[in-house]
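We were asked to recover a plausible sequence for a given structure. The inputs and outputs are reproduced exactly as logged, with field labels preserved.

PROBLEM: sequence recovery
POSITIONS: 118
GIVEN STRUCTURE:
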């Protein structure tokens, strides 16, 4: 069974045709799901649905929730860095510092001045 963090491409999933679902019934489909954790149901060879076992579904939901838990912390850190940089523009000497920087001769010596690296 593959991890929900590395989802399988539809082409690699075990397949069953919609007509086989009718022929073998729900029990036959669930045997495939029990064995592989998931099954792709096709209709005329076109993907139509993916049936997941409850353990696959729970693992997928847990992975999504874990990923979403990191988003606010990452955004808060980014917001803090931005606010710190923005605050430097609100100081009394910000205009003087900018004019001083702009009046300096530009000598890059093949290097790029950008971001927090200068």
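RECOVERED SEQUENCE:
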């Amino acid at each position: 069974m593959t991890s929900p963090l590395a989802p399988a491409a539809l082409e690699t999933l075990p397949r069953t045709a919609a007509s086989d679902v009718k022929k073998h019934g729900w029990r036959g489909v669930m045997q495939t799901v029990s064995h592989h954790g998931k099954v792709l149901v096709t209709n005329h060879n076109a993907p139509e649905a993916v049936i997941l076992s409850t353990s696959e579904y729970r693992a997928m939901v847990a992975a999504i929730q874990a990923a979403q838990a990191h988003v606010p912390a990452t955004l808060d850190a980014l917001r803090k860095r931005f606010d710190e940089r923005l605050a430097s523009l609100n100081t009394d000497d910000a205009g003087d510092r900018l004019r001083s920087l702009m009046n300096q001769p530009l000598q890059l010596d093949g290097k790029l001045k950008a971001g927090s690296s200068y």
